[in-house]
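hey m, so remember when u said the tokens were messed up on ur end? i reran from scratch. heres the input so u can diff it against urs
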Amino acid sequence: MLNDRERRIFEARRLADDSITLQELADEFGVSRERVRQIEVCALEKVQKAVKSNIACIESPATEVAMANSAGESNEEVRKLESDRRLMLKFRGSVITSGVRGSAQA
């Protein structure tokens, strides 16, 4: 669902207890603050879409992983699916408990 850069930015800005600034992430990735913000928005949209379309998979997490295993997916792909599922659960929990976190952050 998210590539490594999107995942790092999303987690640092939306899921961390103390979110990292745009400038810190821009320095880490060698891009502008605006580009980090754009990547964050794109990642948020991907996660929101995945959460909305995969509620059933979140409710029964073994389903998607079992399907991937039976389809002959590699261990890396199965691990990534499980990681994405955990990320969606964490995001879903943060939205439910505190509204969309970081929406007013710059």
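this time it looks ok to me. DSSP finds six helices and no strands in the chain. if urs says something different then somethings off w ur setup not the seq
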